[in-house]
Give the backbone structure.
Amino acid sequence: MLDCYSKYPELKRVPVIDVPITGTNMSSCIQFLTKHIDELHGEYVCVSNAHTSVMAHDDPSYWACQAESVMSVPDGKPLSVLGSKSIESMDRVTGPDLMREIFKISNQYGWSHYFYGNEQKNLDALKQSLQKTYPGLNIAGMEPSVFRPLTENEKCELSKRIADSGADFAWIALGAPRQEVLMYELKGGPQPLMIGVGGAFNVLAGVVPEAPIWMQDLSLEWLYRLIQEPKRLFKRYLITNTKFLFYEFTGARRKEGK
């Protein structure tokens, strides 16, 4: 973690419920990636929110996954609001919007992209949507998840497949915490910069509707998602949101590893 901080002094971190989140915004994030993409092979970016922050607070091994990324950008509005108290310019960098901004300039810079995760039918929908929205976008490869932990040999083979594709970005969509754990385990490999974007594939594919901007601005994106999938998300949001508020207002220290 300290190596990344010293190598890129412009990437300052802000503790949010004791989890180090990068004090950036969309413009600064894109500027950093554009400037350094050629030297970021083997690194990864976490797209962090209240849910991942609570998990990192409670689990030292997952905290390391968040802390040792080259960036853990504030996807969740609560993270950017709290972080802006220390770094005024800090603002949201959501997974879907980060992908959109990168795709907009990819032809200009000659960048190509590898997509790993989700189901084949959703990847097919994503490919069709991207080709329509971003004509000429270089898709170096698409590969669905196997929906189980990978063996060490499978991880090495995945890393090699992504590297051999010649991609500049590897978009990883396994959901938290699986995608962050995988990127952490592949850190330092031959593959390009990995960015964990959770459900962003489905959003850009049009498979899952995106919360209205006004709900995002009011930190109510979680409520929109809860309305869409109440059975799956009710318990998660009830526990996560409660814990996040408790940790923030009490200043509870995170669990330390042994």
User: Anything to note?
Assistant: The chain has 13 helices and eight strands. The domain at 13-205 is CATH 3.40.50 (Rossmann fold).
